[in-house]
Amino acid sequence: MYWAECENKFCIYYEGGKCTMDSICINSQGICDTCLQVDFDEGELHLKRAKLLDQLERQYLKSMEHVEKRAKMLYPHTVDDDMSKTK
Using N-to-C axis directions, what is the helix angle for 76-86 and 42-74, rounded to 10°? Predict the structure, then answer.
């Protein structure tokens, strides 16, 4: 059995990057006509949004720490002077 590649993780027929349907029909807009979307209630969506936002904020803070460390390495006197001015 051939399972067509699929990128829609919210379709009930999606499994591991493939469509589990025996046959599919793609419409003129390139969308599968047999796709059925999984519904999430507001509570689940709220938790997912909060989790993703938290993850993005942690990544941002980590990248800013890296930038600050790198700047101190490249310009040790300038960065220390600028930081003391802001305190």
Answer: 120
